């Protein structure tokens, strides 16, 4: 299928099935802001939880924090964001299009033309800072200007000493955080891939200088593997090292985990060696000693930092694109999301064949059996069984359980497997184990 088509199909599936809607749609929508609906909110939560589980809960060397979104403006002055977190913005004098100059390919003679109308009559480029500004308190002057954070990472540097001391952490160790970040992006594109409000999952891993390159390799492998573990096809993933000129001012080296989106390979996550840049800068600016004290050698030094910085929304989009399938079944089109069971918003749908003969009550009992195990089960009795299966296929639900006449006699149910539509008869109690096993496969 042509790739533009695929994106359109994903966007329309998201709307139709309640994964993602445009924000404030009843007022005509707002540029590049999105709301996650019931299925989207569940799936996003699964992505966040799995990241947290694998990066924090199941590691003895990483702890988590949850910092405020608004921080002292001095944080952003020190980090370089006030001065440098800007994109070159230009306007076309002919068609009034506004675009990022650095994203438009130059002609052979080095000139740039408007990407909309091809005119060479462009305004001078001006630097446009991507941070959203607001005021803390009722006074609107520059002394009260604060920013919505453009990344979650800075809190890990600013809170570094508090966390390290209260937890007596020894190198190497990581501090992780998830949460919203905000960037006033000039160009918003590809649905939720680039928006102005998004969620990040970031970890700062502090190491001894000299051990940084080894840890950088470790985290590149770990993070690339992580996406594959939750179902993204390996041949659609790659690591790409940054060229010197792409590198952020603080980085010694950086590689992106990229996914083959319908428009080409693009960044899911950046994994940077940030050296001791941030801790040194904050120590100097705050006057606080942020060096690490090595009790064994009595040395004090600034650790180096490896940062895997991922985006929830981009992971979400990659997982939708990667799992989207159209198949022909008995002359009809079947749309199915072959999501990894741990990513799927609903794990199991329980469907009474008909709305009588005690089947709805029995099906509700089965649903509660799953809820008691903390598994997201969904009850659906509307429309024909075939239509209900299709609805669950589109939602990516890995298992459907049908309660029918035989269930009422012998307690067995039909389990239907999403990917190959195979159906088997099993005891309703055994269905919990089948689903649990599938969920444990990625763990
Ligand atoms: P890009 O080059 O695509 O603008 P970036 O290199 O500026 O991204 P980072 O600063 O490394 O991005 O942020 C880490 C992660 O946060 C990105 O890999 C991405 O997953 C996510 N992210 C960054 N900006 C956005 C955005 N505008 N919308 C959605 N996710 C984003």
Structure description:
By secondary structure, this protein is α+β, with helices and mostly antiparallel strands. Among the domains are: 206 residues, BirA Bifunctional Protein, domain 2; 97 residues, Rossmann fold. It is 32% helix and 28% strand. It is built from 13 helices and 23 strands. A seven-stranded mixed sheet has the order 3-9-10-16-13-12-11. A five-stranded mixed sheet has the order 20-19-21-22-23, sandwiched between helices. Helix 2 crosses helix 9 and helix 3 crosses helix 8. It is globular. 35% of the residues are buried. The model has no long low-confidence stretch (mean pLDDT 93).
Which structural traits does this protein have?
seven-stranded mixed sheet; five-stranded mixed sheet; Rossmann fold; 443 residues; binds adenosine-5'-triphosphate; BirA Bifunctional Protein, domain 2; alpha+beta
First and last CA, distance: 33 Å
Instruction: Give the CATH topology of the domain at 37-71 and 150-320.
Output: BirA Bifunctional Protein, domain 2
Count of separate DSSP helical elements:
13
Kindly name the structural category: alpha+beta
Q: Report the major sheet.
A: 7 strands, mixed
SSE blueprint and pairings:
Layout: H1 3-16, E1 20-22, E2 34-36, H2 38-57, E3 62-64, H3 73-79, H4 81-84, E4 86-91, E5 98-100, E6 126-129, E7 133-135, E8 145-147, H5 153-158, H6 160-167, E9 173-182, E10 197-207, H7 212-229, E11 237-241, E12 253-261, E13 264-275, H8 277-286, E14 292-293, E15 300-301, E16 304-311, H9 312-323, E17 324-329, E18 332-337, E19 348-352, H10 359-372, E20 377-379, H11 385-395, E21 399-403, H12 405-410, E22 412-417, E23 423-427, H13 428-440
Parallel strand pairs: 3-9, 19-20, 19-21
Antiparallel strand pairs: 1-2, 4-5, 4-6, 7-8, 9-10, 10-16, 11-12, 12-13, 13-16, 14-15, 17-18, 21-22, 22-23
Helix pairs in contact: 2-9, 3-8
The chain binds adenosine-5'-triphosphate (ATP).
Adenosine-5'-triphosphate (ATP) is lined by residues 151, 183, 185, 194-195, 198, 200, 267-270, 309-311, 313-314.
């Amino acid at each position: 299928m042509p790739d533009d088509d695929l994106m359109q199909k994903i966007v329309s599936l998201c709307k139709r099935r309640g994964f993602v809607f445009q924000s404030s749609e009843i007022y005509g929508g707002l540029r590049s802001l999105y709301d996650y609906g019931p299925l989207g909110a569940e799936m996003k939560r699964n992505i966040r939880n799995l990241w947290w589980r694998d990066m924090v809960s199941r590691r003895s060397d990483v702890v988590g924090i949850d910092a405020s979104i608004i921080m002292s403006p001095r944080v952003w002055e020190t980090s370089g964001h006030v001065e440098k977190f800007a994109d070159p913005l230009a306007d076309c004098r002919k068609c009034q299009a506004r675009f990022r100059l650095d994203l438009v390919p130059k002609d052979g003679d080095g000139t740039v033309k408007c990407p909309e109308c091809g005119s060479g009559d462009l305004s001078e480029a001006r630097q446009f800072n991507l941070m959203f500004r607001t005021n803390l308190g009722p006074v609107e002057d520059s002394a009260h200007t604060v920013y919505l954070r453009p990344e979650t990472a800075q809190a890990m540097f600013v809170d570094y000493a508090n966390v390290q001391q209260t937890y007596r952490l020894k190198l190497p160790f990581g501090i992780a955080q998830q949460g919203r970040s905000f960037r006033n992006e000039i160009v918003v594109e590809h649905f939720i891939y680039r928006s102005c409000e998004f969620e990040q999952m970031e970890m700062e891993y502090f190491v001894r200088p000299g051990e940084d390159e080894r840890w950088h390799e470790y985290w590149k492998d770990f993070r690339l593997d992580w996406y594959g573990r939750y179902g993204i096809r390996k041949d659609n993933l790659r690591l790409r090292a940054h060229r010197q000129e792409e590198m952020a001012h603080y980085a010694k080296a950086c590689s992106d985990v990229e996914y083959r989106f319908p428009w080409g390979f693009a960044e899911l996550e950046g994994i940077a060696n940030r050296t001791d840049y941030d801790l040194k800068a904050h120590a100097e600016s705050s006057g606080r000693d942020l060096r690490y004290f090595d009790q064994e050698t009595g040395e004090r030094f600034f650790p180096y930092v490896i940062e895997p910085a991922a985006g929830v929304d981009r992971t979400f989009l990659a997982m939708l694109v990667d799992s989207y399938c159209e198949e022909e079944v008995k002359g009809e089109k079947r749309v199915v999301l072959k999501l990894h069971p741990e990513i799927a918003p609903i794990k199991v749908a329980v469907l009474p064949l008909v709305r009588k003969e005690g089947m709805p009550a029995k099906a509700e009992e089965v649903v509660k059996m799953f809820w008691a195990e903390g598994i997201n089960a969904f009850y659906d009795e509307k429309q024909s069984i075939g239509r209900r299966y299709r609805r669950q296929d589109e939602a990516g639900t890995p298992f459907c359980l049908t309660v029918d006449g035989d269930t009422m006699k012998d307690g067995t149910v039909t389990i239907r497997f999403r990917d190959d539509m195979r159906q088997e008869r099993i005891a309703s109690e055994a269905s919990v184990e089948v689903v649990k096993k599938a969920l444990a496969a990625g763990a």
